[in-house]
Amino acid sequence: MSRLQSMTGFARAARDHDAGGIVWEIKSVNGRSLEARFRLPPGFERIEPMARQRLQKCFARGNVQASLTFTQSDALRRPVVDEDFLKEVAALAGRLQEQFGTAPATADGLLALRGVLDFADPVADEDLRASLDEAILAALDDALRGLEEARRAEGGALEAILLDQVSRIEALTDQVEADPSRSPEAIRERLREQVARLMDATTGFDADRLHAEAAILAAKADIREEIDRLRTHIAAARALIASGGPIGRKLDFMGQEFNRESNTLCSKSNAATVTAIGLELKAVVDQFREQVQNLE
């Protein structure tokens, strides 16, 4: 099982109880923090605080929606008729028939009126209610384990993608470092040609001063520090992924650092080959940051 979790997943768990059937369905999507929403049948609001505590122990990030369905056992469904109310409604129906000639009231029509017929609470017994609550929470634990497994399964796929992208960032960093344009000879020749063009096109320049200024510009354009920082970030990203757990925020910050170094590399580049590698590096970093958004 992967050490990482995605923030997306779905799970379903069901249990039977003497009072009826219990079904939990839980789905999770991306979120900046952990946000849980519960949809519970009327009369089961008492479950939410305990259910929320269980969910918070399992996950650190993600928008989670948990839905409980409870189907009462037929054996416990007892109809209850409000006879006083029924008599009043029947009497009213009789008067309407006498005064206005309306159709006579039928039994099924009267029973269908709101408030006439209801069903007794099948779990009014305290012991049965406690047993039912225990079963509901046990089913929730099953669903939470299923959701965690689903998120870890996708986390395994994300881990492979992220490690591959880090390897691509490392390979591009190697290409930048080994690019022929960064050799002292190539830099010296490029500067010599630039200075020569300036001297040919302009009079009154101090050649020594111009060479000194060119040397300063060359030092500012050097990307040694960017390469070193990229390598540091690469090692840190691999260590984070290996550590597992809820590392999405930390890897998101690492993606920002990758992006900053690749931008600086492109801006300081004075060779077309390095610029091309830098642009490809930016593209891979963007892909890395996009995948990190799915990680817990």
Automatic annotation (TrEMBL):
<dbReference type="Pfam" id="PF03755">
    <property type="entry name" value="YicC-like_N"/>
</dbReference>
<dbReference type="Pfam" id="PF08340">
    <property type="entry name" value="YicC-like_C"/>
</dbReference>
<protein>
    <submittedName>
        <fullName>TIGR00255 family protein</fullName>
    </submittedName>
</protein>
<dbReference type="GO" id="GO:0016787">
    <property type="term" value="F:hydrolase activity"/>
</dbReference>
<dbReference type="GO" id="GO:0004521">
    <property type="term" value="F:RNA endonuclease activity"/>
</dbReference>
<dbReference type="InterPro" id="IPR013551">
    <property type="entry name" value="YicC-like_C"/>
</dbReference>
<keyword id="KW-0255">Endonuclease</keyword>
<keyword id="KW-0378">Hydrolase</keyword>
<feature type="domain" description="Endoribonuclease YicC-like C-terminal">
    <location>
        <begin position="181"/>
        <end position="296"/>
    </location>
</feature>
<feature type="domain" description="Endoribonuclease YicC-like N-terminal">
    <location>
        <begin position="4"/>
        <end position="159"/>
    </location>
</feature>
<keyword id="KW-0540">Nuclease</keyword>
<dbReference type="InterPro" id="IPR013527">
    <property type="entry name" value="YicC-like_N"/>
</dbReference>
<comment type="similarity">
    <text>Belongs to the YicC/YloC family.</text>
</comment>
<dbReference type="InterPro" id="IPR005229">
    <property type="entry name" value="YicC/YloC-like"/>
</dbReference>
